[in-house]
Amino acid sequence: MRPLAAAFVVLAALACLGASPGARTIPHPGGGPALIVPAGSPVRFAGFDKNGVAHFKGRFQLNGNYTYGCRIDCEEPPIPGDNLELNLLPDPSLTKRMPHWQDRGDDMVIELTATSKQLAALATRAQVAALRSGKLDEVRGHIVVTADDFVADFGCDYSPYYAARVVALSKPPTLAKLDIKGDFGCA
């Protein structure tokens, strides 16, 4: 095959897979959607574990709008502290560079694990008390964090699931009222 024809075949195959040029497409070991790791991703693919969860290496900066509150299976107040979740909707420029599941939507929500000290910087004691009592649904704002331990998995119905661990708050958060749209999986 001529070099020009071979290059065309490769580019056509990438276009069919929905990956951008330079993106790496990794088949899921259990079938289902493939994993797309864009060129310029801030993390490196480390492999799948025995449950098919994709693990990544590297510290990276996450920036975007966060929500802190009870998302799923919220009990009648008082809500236990371990039912409060911190989620991040990455800024669009970051979303384009993050690993994601093929054909699973353009929206990405990353569940963040943070220390109590880091969480205290995102919501005041009064806000946490209002969250736990059911008087406040969630606290929202914009954050920039340094993170690691990024993982990608599937929820029920092949809905995408992403998570990372907060290493440090890179900038103080800004609290804001945000209009966050989208259905991010099973509820």
Task: Please render the helix and strand layout as text.
Elements: H1 3-17, E1 24-26, E2 35-37, E3 44-48, E4 54-57, E5 60-69, E6 85-90, H2 92-95, E7 100-101, E8 110-113, H3 116-122, H4 125-133, E9 138-154, E10 160-175
Give keywords:
about 190 residues, alpha+beta, 5-stranded mixed β-barrel, 3-stranded antiparallel beta sheet, 4 helices, 10 strands, globular, disordered N terminus
Polypeptide structure, described:
The chain has a five-stranded mixed β-barrel. The protein has a three-stranded antiparallel beta sheet with strand order 1-2-7, with no helix packed on it. It is globular and about 45 Å long. It is 19% helix and 37% strand. It has 187 residues and is of the alpha+beta class. The protein has one domain (3-175). A hairpin with a 5-residue loop joins β9 (138-154) and β10.
